[in-house]
Amino acid sequence: MYIATANLLLPTTIIGSLPRPSWYTQNLGRREFREAMVDRAYREQYLDAVSTYLRDQEVAGLDIVTDGDCRFDADVAGHNWFSYAPLRMSGFSGANFYRAGGKAGFPHKPGHILHDVLETRMMPDLTGPVGRGTLQYTAVWKAAQRQTAKPVKFGTIMPELVAMAVRDLHYKDLKKAILAISDALNEELHELADAGCKVIQMEEPQIHLLAAKGLVDKVLNPDFMVEVFNNTVRGLRKKTEIWCHTCWGNPAAQRLFAKTPSYAPAIEPLSRIDADVITFETCSSGGMDLEAIGKGIKDKKICIGVVDHHTLQVETPDQVAALVRKALEHIPAERLILGSDCGMGREGMSRRHAFYKMVSIVQGTNLVRRERKLPEAACLAADEKFSMVEEL
Ligand SMILES: [Zn+2]
């Protein structure tokens, strides 16, 4: 159900992660979140970092904010986005360096930056029945939500990505492993929704990637991935707003494809997922799929990326506004949300680049709001009254 975006026209947000402040040197490692929060040094840095992420988003003027994915460690290419869940859920143990049958990640030879991603993909094995373990998503969300009145969107990795990235010594069956992780995540997310989280984001279901690849596999296919998505969120839309994030990759802010793939073959399966909002990477492709998205997704809101997470060049407000106008030719304003293509914190840009990209999201959207006589968002960062530059 619509909660976070209810009654908001052209709301703005980001996908999730933000670059770490240089002084945020503490890491969670293998500890559970609540245990680490007993450690004075970790607690102070963690809460200060969350506060910084929230303030930056508020100063930019975003409507829906995130905790910047503050729980993830400072590792190569933002690997913790993959490993946080299996390192804490029950049923996983040990740690191995290897690629599970080539099912997760893209092969790259030494000498390529993405080879580092494979080399540092240290994942535990799946060794027993999967359970929620110590994910503690509710505690992580509370640590951010109690610092702001704006809705904090909480994101989680999807079960298929965890299953595809580990060695399964227990179920020895990819389908069973995916569904077991899906059930455990569903339980965890119900606790989070019951605690009052107004928006939960399911990150990277493999629907679009498998549809784009066009391969036929009895488990790894778009239809089964729709089933997995709907199983993972079952019952949640009665309690909260559910988002589905899709993009074409992010490790170390690298593009995984020489040419951005088209969402066209993925639109139909995506239209069947049990979600309120779907996010699409559209800035990096110049809005190539906006018409297909508008035609194919009719009963959900659509969040388009208007800034690119791969580039350091900050999109201008005019560029953002042009993409918003292009989207409005195919998607009604009541169903359009503006965001980033993906998270900006997976070992990519500096804090300043990410900050000004957020400011551009808001300023660009304000240009379109002004044209349509809609209320504009306050953007403190762009208020001339506070400029320290003096006329000579
Ligand atoms: Zn993404």
Task: Provide a descriptive summary of the structure in words.
- By secondary structure, the protein is an alpha/beta fold.
- The chain has one domain (33-383): TIM Barrel, CATH 3.20.20.
- 36% of the residues lie in helices and 12% in strands.
- The protein has helices at residues 33-36, 40-60, 80-88, 113-119, 137-145, 159-165, 174-194, 207-213, 222-232, 267-271, 290-296, 317-328, 351-371, and strands at residues 90-97, 122-131, 154-157, 199-203, 241-245, 277-280, 301-307, 336-340.
- Helix 12 (317-328) links the parallel strand 7 and strand 8.
- Helix 2 (40-60) packs parallel to helix 13 (351-371), helix 6 crosses helix 7 and helix 8 (207-213) runs antiparallel to helix 9 (222-232).
- The radius of gyration is 20 Å and the shape is globular.
- The structure holds zinc ion (ZN).
- Zinc ion is lined by residues 15, 204, 245, 247, 250, 342.
In short:
This protein is α/β, with parallel strands linked by helices and 392 residues long. It is built from 13 helices and 8 strands. The strands form 2 sheets. A 6-stranded parallel beta sheet has the order 3-4-5-6-7-8.
